[in-house]
Design a protein that fits this description.
The protein has three domains: 157 residues, Glutaredoxin (3-Layer(aba) Sandwich), CATH 3.40.30.10; 122 residues, Glutathione S-transferase Yfyf (Class Pi), Chain A, domain 2 (Up-down Bundle); 85 residues. The chain is built from 16 helices and four strands. α1 crosses α9, α14 packs across α15 and α15 packs antiparallel against α16.
């Protein structure tokens, strides 16, 4: 690739151009395919992924619940942006900009859509009267910093993060340009936090929740490869102090796990439908499906058969028409030795979760449903 580029008079889209994100970036809006969004049992339905913007909202929701706001119970559905889930018709109906996070509030009629992470934070803070100071000066400070983050983060993520870590070629000018700006932003934060415990002063607020996933993780070494070293981020001592205090909050720790699909399996709660999910539904536990689990499942099915109700559940969870695969699963899992292909293990896991919900009654339906969606079927 040449270092010299002369822009054409009119730009045209080259679909293969764009590096890691070439398959999902496009210059037009609107849905690419028909796909309805699932709706769980809670009034608040979140469709997201554990990027910094997604984590802002799950941190706030977990903080609201920890503070006793039971109305903030929520279902969090995983949107895999790398797979283009954000371009499904249902998601575009909630957020026409096709960006996570997106929220539907079914506690009002008609149900209200809320998109853009800053808007969701402000909406929820005002709805529950929490994490936004009541007095005008402190409230204004919180909103100042909330909107500072919304305006500044694109330089950190779309600018520095892209050219330093994701871009298919390293461009010195671009990296220097955005590194300079990010270090300036870190200095802005560091100077402010030298005189303030939190962004709005003494009170923890949505401004902290918005800034922490973006700038706090830079100091923790959790973003863009070795950016913590490149940016010399540990030298921003006040940002480090503030980051450590926020990171120690249990609700923050839970919020960082929700809709996470990478990293340590114990830190991945790909979907969240109940507070107990943090103990029972993390990915490390879901992937502990043993041969005995599946043998028990097969025994149950042999005794009870696949009745109409269970078939209806299989249909609902995209397992319809899988009799042949089920037969192969039985063959693989009923014999000694290797467990068979990953595909068959995958299918067995999904089927087992349906059966678990079917056996244990209505209270297990949502848990079984959540588990199933974490095991997408794969082609042989």
């Amino acid at each position: 690739m040449s270092d010299d580029y002369t822009p054409p008079k009119v730009w045209t889209w080259e679909k293969g151009n764009g590096g890691e994100f070439a398959s999902i970036n496009r210059p037009i809006a609107g849905p690419t395919h028909e796909k309805e969004l699932p709706i769980g049992k809670h009034p608040l339905q979140l469709y997201s992924l554990a990027t910094p913007n997604g984590q802002k909202v799950t941190i706030l929701l977990e903080e609201l619940l920890a503070a006793g706001h039971t109305g903030a119970e929520y279902d969090a559905w995983l949107i895999q942006i790398g797979d283009g889930d954000q371009f499904g018709s249902g998601f575009v109906g909630v957020n026409p900009n096709s960006k996570i996070p997106a929220l539907m509030d079914h506690s009002v009629s008609p149900a209200l859509r809320v998109f853009e992470s800053g808007s969701i934070l402000l909406y929820l803070a005002e709805k529950f009267g929490a994490f936004l100071p009541n007095d005008l000066p402190a409230r204004t400070q919180a909103l100042n910093w909330l909107f500072w983050q919304m305006g500044s983060a694109p330089f950190l993520g779309g600018g520095f993060g892209h050219f330093f870590h994701y871009a298919p070629v390293k461009i010195k000018y671009a990296i220097d340009r955005y590194t300079m700006e990010v270090k300036r932003q870190m200095d802005v934060l560091d100077r402010h936090l030298a005189d303030n415990r939190f962004m709005a002063g003494t009170e923890y607020s949505i401004a902290d929740m918005a800034i922490f996933p973006w700038y706090g993780r830079i100091t923790q070494g959790g973003a863009y490869g070795d950016a913590v070293t490149f940016l010399d981020a540990k030298t921003y001592k006040n940002v480090v102090r503030w980051t450590e205090e926020i990171a120690a909050r249990p609700a923050v720790q839970r919020g960082l796990m929700v809709n996470r699909s990478s990293g340590e399996l114990s830190g991945q709660l790909r979907e969240r439908h109940d507070a107990s999910d943090f103990e029972t539904m993390t990915q490390d536990k879901l992937e502990r499906l043993t041969r005995k689990d599946v043998v028990d499942m097969l025994s149950y099915l042999e005794q009870h058969g696949l009745d109409e109700e269970l078939y209806a559940q299989l249909h609902h969870f995209s397992l319809k028409g899988e009799k042949e695969k089920f037969s192969r699963t039985r063959q693989y899992w009923s014999k000694d030795g290797e467990i068979g292909s990953e595909t068959n293990r995958d299918f067995a896991a999904r089927l087992y979760c349906v059966v678990a919900g079917h056996k244990r009654g209505e209270e297990w339906d949502d848990i079984a449903a959540a588990a199933l969606r974490l095991y997408p079927l794969k082609a042989d």
